[in-house]
Specification:
The protein starts with a strand and ends with a strand. Helices cover about 0% and strands about 50% of the residues. The model has no long low-confidence stretch (mean pLDDT about 95). The strands form 2 sheets. Strands 2, 4, 5, 6, 9, 10 and 11 form a 7-stranded mixed β-sheet that branches. A 4-stranded antiparallel β-sheet has the order 1-3-8-7, with no helix packed on it. It contains no helices and 11 strands.
């Protein structure tokens, strides 16, 4: 049974930092492309960042580029999202997702490509 469990969310002041974690189990983590998505109240879920199976390829949404960094530790079956210089508009529930890597694509930005999802962790940003 595949499980993705996000942690690290909470309330942070604008300009502050937080690191999210996504712990995976029940899958061969090193063979999965991983992604972060977020959903704010009243809005659709949107892509944040993704990372290739070996961590060598990353991609970010324009809104978070140069502020967020995605990484992974395949030995620990965990993905991270370091979020710096947070803004009120970054407040959302953050979800991690996994997609089996067929070796053709380096990463996916379309949420409908992903096979497995976590329950999400809330990040709130006070101004």
């Amino acid at each position: 049974q595949v499980q993705l469990v996000e942690s690290g969310g909470g309330l942070v002041q604008a300009g502050g930092s937080v690191r999210l974690s996504c712990a995976a189990s029940g899958l061969t983590f090193s063979r999965h492309i991983m992604g972060w998505f977020r959903q704010a109240p009243g809005k659709e879920r949107e892509f944040v960042a993704a990372i290739g199976w070996n961590g060598g390829s990353t991609v970010y949404a324009d809104s978070v580029k140069d502020r967020f960094t995605v990484s992974r530790d395949n030995a620990e079956n965990t993905m991270y999202l370091q979020m710096n210089n947070l803004r009120p508009e970054d407040a959302a529930v953050y979800y991690c997702a996994a997609k089996w890597s067929n070796g053709v694509y380096l990463y996916y930005t379309d949420q409908y490509e992903y096979d497995y999802w976590g329950e999400g962790t809330q990040v709130s940003v006070s101004s």
